[in-house]
Amino acid sequence: MAGVGGIGKGSFFELRGNHTLGREESRSGRFLDRRDYCKLHIISHYVQTLLGPGFTTLPIGFVGEDEAGREMLQEMIAAGMDLRYVQALPGEQTMTSICLVYPDGSGGNLTADNSANDKVNPEVVETAFTQDPLARARNTGVVLAAPEVSLEARLRLLELGRQRGFYNVLAVNSAEAAAPEVEPLFERADLLALNLDEAVAVCRSQGEAWEGGVENIVESTTRLMTEYDLDLAITAGRQGSWACAGQDLHHLPGLKVQAVSTAGAGDAFLAGLIVGKVASLGLFEAHELARLVAALSLTSPHTIHPNIDRLSLGAFAREVGVPLSPAVEALL
């Protein structure tokens, strides 16, 4: 798998009070002893640890030549990733973020847009594809176009992935989902992963109306995406997740676990879908696996659960008593 997206770290800040932070409000809170990571790092970590050393994960990006950058590189190497396309840039700062957490467990991220990884552009992606092993790769593998780099860089990655016969995976944030510039990315994706807020943004951008309710939002988004001939996955927290292939829509309820933090669960879910694709599972079987990865990730305070692998995932499935299809059981 080759991918672009955020590489960096962040801090968790828990706000006092569950009401949404106002534009001009001052609110107290406290920093939490939790580790936060950016999207490409999270997804790549789970893909690599679940598929093991026989699989090659190739992030494309930059970190700063600073302590945070050195820390990120060490952790990615320890997870087994191949970092030949990741460079440390002198004079630049590694991408940083603040994850705002409300007492009820909900929250969101604030991510700096002037970091080393913001130097990832179409030319950087093209250069990676002129070098081995990507230069030789044809008709096998996955490309991942994740947020926290520009739409232009992600578009070029998807174009090259389509030319080489890769399976193209796309994730967008809510602002991007509503932007006209994202449509060419939809056209070149094989799988689009959204959370509920991003799905609402897609519907609003297309003038699609719905009468409220999660299921109506999912159905509206699915209808809009049929013209792009791609697989679709939508996550909605406790209300579960959906996967759509063609006209077939598959829903799985959320698993009941003692959630410590929801941060990073959507990225864990997407990693599970990618692992399922690499393991030759059908989309709905991969959906089962993705739900498991996301649910187990909730039990860690960190956005990367440090102990998730196939062994722990299998043990977790038995612990919660979730029925699995034979193909998923065999993988675990």
Task: Give the CATH level 1 class.
Answer: Alpha Beta
Percent helix, as a range, is 25-40%
* Shape annotation: globular
How is the main sheet built? 8 strands, mixed
Strand content: 15-25%
CATH architecture: 3-Layer(aba) Sandwich
Low-pLDDT residue spans:
none
Spatial extent as radius of gyration? 19 Å
Characterize the structure shown.
The chain is α/β, with parallel strands linked by helices and 332 residues long. It has helices at 39-51, 67-78, 122-129, 151-164, 174-177, 183-188, 196-205, 214-225, 265-278, 283-297, 310-320, 326-331; strands at residues 2-4, 8-15, 29-37, 58-59, 61-64, 86-89, 95-101, 107-111, 142-145, 167-171, 191-195, 231-235, 241-245, 248-252. The protein has one domain (2-16, 31-331): UDP-N-acetylmuramoyl-L-alanine:D-glutamate ligase (3-Layer(aba) Sandwich). Helix content is 38%, strand content 21%.
Give a short overview.
By secondary structure, the chain is an alpha/beta fold. The chain has a single domain, classed as 3-Layer(aba) Sandwich (UDP-N-acetylmuramoyl-L-alanine:D-glutamate ligase). It contains twelve helices and 14 strands.
